[in-house]
Amino acid sequence: MSRQRPDHVPTEHQPSPAGPVVRTGLSLRPGTPSRRVFLTGTVGAAAALTLAACGGGDDASDDVADVDSSSFEEGSTMAKLADAGKITVGTKFDQPLFGQAGPDGKPTGFDVEIAKMIAAALGIKADKIEWTETVSANREPFIQNGQVDIVVATYTINDERKKVVDFAGPYYTAGQALMVKKGDDAITGPDDLKDKNVCSVEGSTPAQNIEDNYPDAKLVTFDTYSKCVTALDNGQADTVTTDNVILAGFVAADKDKLQMVDDGKTFTKEPYGIGLKKGDDDFREFINDTLQKAYDDGSWAEAWKSTAGQVLPTPDPPKIDRY
Amino acid sequence: MGSLLASRAAVWDAFTTTLFLAVTAGVLALLVGTLLAAMRVSPYAPLRTVATVYTEFLRNTPLTIVFFFFVFVTPSMGFTFAYKVAAVIALTCYTSAFVAEAVRSGINSVAVGQAEAARSLGMSFGQNLAIVVLPQAFRTAIPPLISVLIALVKNTSVAGAFSVLELFALSKRLTNAHSSDVIAILVGIALCYLVICIPLGRLAAALERKAAFAR
């Protein structure tokens, strides 16, 4: 097979023991030369496309001060990451304003900005961050197995999760709110939910809260919030409930049809933290310090304004919980 | 595994929901699918066309889209189903296309002489099919049919994304509530599916032995 070059698409001139590249559907010889030529060509083309797609889009503004890795204690997670010069961050890819992947596959949002701050404090440039999509169910296993170094993914701090991972932060406090059709004033707060079809995502904390604390409400669950919005639009759901920041993203996208109940008043507290491996207290303290610095020098507020702040007012940063 | 045992009542409810979806949609799909297969070999061309279009359309559409249609699109046309009913309809429509193809392959495997002999005895198309061809066709169709049914059991998990609290949706709810126990919960839920699917496979083996014996 030496005559093949990896990214060479076969032409009719190329000699091939199996004759011209005609795929007959039922060849039971997996390694026939003609097929291998065909595959190599495809893979080469695909790789070229992927490379092209990854090429552009690096913000030139990401200036990161050099950080001497020896300034960290030897053997600490910080030293390891700074030495490696890269960090793997788990974030949501489908959460508008916080972590949403664009067509180029790179996520943007407030969570992403927070992760970049932490990376920068380790001397890691934004383009050396490896983004891994985490969904609600795989955040803990990813941290426990070391598949990601940190998780910044609208990750609510709670005691159940603290059993298996540790949290730095919180860096933002969200809360459960309600969203209705524009002009609908039948629901003014969580106490009006009796016999109403309340839509949320299965396996989310807001859905569990409705199930546990508002038993008179009729909970309807789908796998994505966009389906809830469709149900709301169809009249199959009377209201959609989840964290205010998520709802704000939908309202911002469709102001003529949707509105928040009571101006987005929240009725729970969801402190978003940064998940990391349990027991790594030095790293947790380091991230907390980094966050505090960002609070103090205004870069936290700046990150907020450039992302979620486009539709939500800028809050005061929450107090960091150094447990 | 502790959190799974603690919520065993919920697991049992979800298990029976999955079983209900699989059995109801399975029986309906077998009926509809056989009818479709009969239509496809019928001497009347419009029936053949209808069955072919139906089969090709549903067999080649993602199940999620079929669900989407019965959960979100039909209500805007004035037909609103309860979520469980919508799930059964969607699963039946989707699975019946595969059943139809499995049965048709069985019909094609019956020697032409059988049908010819039946016709020469003066049997109608319906009698021919019901008495002579289909009983032989089902024998050959058993393995593919069981595969279709096993796929159906697993496909019920799509209903979890459309407001039916079956095993898969429950696994999401439980993993959120007990995030320290994610892997044990998922393994437990997988076991629940095995409890349904493995006996189905055994049943297939038994039926196959019986059919082979009768031949």
From TrEMBL, chain A:
One Pfam family from the record: SBP_bac_3
PROSITE patterns the UniProt entry points to: SBP_BACTERIAL_3 (PS01039), TAT (PS51318)
Coiled coil: none
InterPro entries referenced in this protein's UniProt entry, alphabetically: Bact_solute-bind_prot3, Iontro_rcpt_C, SBP_3_CS, Solute-binding_3/MltF_N, TAT_signal
Family affiliation: Belongs to the bacterial solute-binding protein 3 family.
Signal in keyword set: yes
Organism of derivation: Brachybacterium halotolerans
Region named Disordered: 1-23
Domain Solute-binding protein family 3/N-terminal residue range list: 86-311
CDD domains with a match to the protein in the record: PBP2_GluB
Protein name: Glutamate ABC transporter substrate-binding protein
Lineage summary: Bacteria, Bacillati, Actinomycetota, Actinomycetes, Micrococcales
Keywords: Signal, Transport
TrEMBL record, chain B:
Keyword Transport on entry: yes
Pfam short name (any one): BPD_transp_1
Keywords, comma-separated and alphabetical: Amino-acid transport, Cell membrane, Membrane, Transmembrane, Transmembrane helix, Transport
Topological category with respect to the lipid bilayer: Multi-pass membrane protein
Compartments (UniProt record): Cell membrane
PROSITE patterns from the UniProt entry: ABC_TM1
Domain ABC transmembrane type-1 stretches: 15-204
Residue spans crossing the bilayer: 12-37, 57-74, 81-100, 145-170, 182-205
Chief place where the protein resides: membrane
PANTHER family: AMINO-ACID ABC TRANSPORTER PERMEASE PROTEIN YHDX-RELATED, MEMBRANE COMPONENT OF AMINO ACID ABC TRANSPORTER
Family: Belongs to the binding-protein-dependent transport system permease family. HisMQ subfamily.
Protein name: Amino acid ABC transporter permease
Upper lineage: Bacteria, Bacillati, Actinomycetota, Actinomycetes, Micrococcales
